[in-house]
């Protein structure tokens, strides 16, 4: 599970580089996210634009990361592709995350 | 009716590989994007459930049959692992979003996208049959 992190102002941006977050990648994703978010920042945005598939294990891992960062930094998501968006919508987890259309929109908006 | 048979081995990595192989071939490769995406979500959940629960992480055979009918796919998935508790499908219980549950979404996704779900324990086999609508896909 490849993730790339950059600091944009006071916002930590983490970009998922693989095209799937599934049962085979979920544990590694969670561990890498825990390491990468150890640096202080005002906000954390996870850019999922390259992720074409996320299953319930991947969703669970994203929720786990959200809980790891709470309550100081709510995990924000950006760039959901159609299948990923559908999994969030069908499980109603789209109601608990701040979801930006794209990374640029997320960075423009105040957390 | 042409039927496609796909064999794979349980385990998160081999399920991912098997799913990739299946979706690249017929009949999935001829489906509209939205229908293919629904098939990928449902099959990933079904296959990972088998790997995690029926086989409890051990390797074991999984067989998948797919037939395309007008407006739908008919699927059958069989494994030789442990039966479903009570020999029946688990109830549809979606965790409330506020619970921040990290699991329990799989069967809800299957039920939301598949229809006519049927589970049977046949001797030492688990057999799951269901339909997927493919109305967005041309003939």
UniProtKB/TrEMBL annotation, chain A:
Q: What is the name attached to this protein's record?
A: Anti-sigma factor antagonist
> Where in this chain does the record put each STAS domain?
12-110
CDD domains given in the database record: STAS_anti-anti-sigma_factors
Q: Which organism is it from?
A: Fuscovulum blasticum DSM 2131
User: Can you provide one Gene Ontology molecular function annotated for this UniProt record?
Assistant: anti-sigma factor antagonist activity
Q: What Pfam families does the record tag this protein with?
A: STAS (PF01740)
TrEMBL record, chain B:
Give TM regions. none
Q: Which residues form the Histidine kinase/HSP90-like ATPase domain?
A: 30-128
Write the protein's name. Answer: ATP-binding protein
Q: Specify whether Cell wall biogenesis/degradation is a keyword of the entry.
A: no
Q: Could you tell me the keywords of this UniProt record?
A: ATP-binding, Kinase, Nucleotide-binding, Serine/threonine-protein kinase, Transferase
Q: Which InterPro entries match?
A: Anti-sigma-factor_SerPK, HATPase_C_sf, HATPase_dom
Does ATP-binding show up as a keyword for this record?
yes
Q: Name one Pfam family in it.
A: HATPase_c_2
Species whose genome carries this gene: Fuscovulum blasticum DSM 2131
The domain of life is Bacteria
The top of its lineage is:
Bacteria, Pseudomonadati, Pseudomonadota, Alphaproteobacteria, Rhodobacterales
GO MF, any single term = protein serine/threonine kinase activity
Q: Which CDD domains match?
A: HATPase_RsbW-like
């Amino acid at each position: 599970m490849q993730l790339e992190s950059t600091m944009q102002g006071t916002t930590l941006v983490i970009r998922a580089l693989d095209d799937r977050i599934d049962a085979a990648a979920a544990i590694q994703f969670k561990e890498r996210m825990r390491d990468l978010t150890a640096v202080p920042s005002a906000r954390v945005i996870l850019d999922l634009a390259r992720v074409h598939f996320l299953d319930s294990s991947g969703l669970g891992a994203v929720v786990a990361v959200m809980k790891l960062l709470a309550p100081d930094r709510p995990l924000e998501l950006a760039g959901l592709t159609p299948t990923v968006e559908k999994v969030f919508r069908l499980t109603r987890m789209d109601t608990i995350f701040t979801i930006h259309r794209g990374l640029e929109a997320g960075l423009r908006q105040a957390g | 009716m042409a039927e496609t048979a796909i064999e794979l081995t349980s385990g998160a990595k081999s399920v991912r590989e098997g799913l990739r192989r299946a979706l690249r071939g017929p009949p999935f490769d001829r489906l509209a994007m939205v229908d293919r995406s629904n098939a990928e979500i449902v099959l990933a959940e079904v296959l990972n459930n088998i790997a995690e629960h029926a086989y409890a992480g051990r390797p074991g055979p999984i067989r998948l049959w797919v037939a395309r009918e007008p407006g739908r796919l008919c699927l059958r998935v069989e494994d030789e692992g442990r039966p479903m508790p009570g020999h029946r499908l688990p109830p549809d219980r979606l965790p409330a979003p506020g619970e921040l549950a990290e699991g329990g979404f799989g069967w809800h996704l299957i039920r939301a996208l598949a229809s006519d779900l049927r589970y049977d324990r046949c001797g030492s086999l688990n057999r799951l049959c269901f339909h997927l609508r493919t109305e967005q896909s041309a003939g």
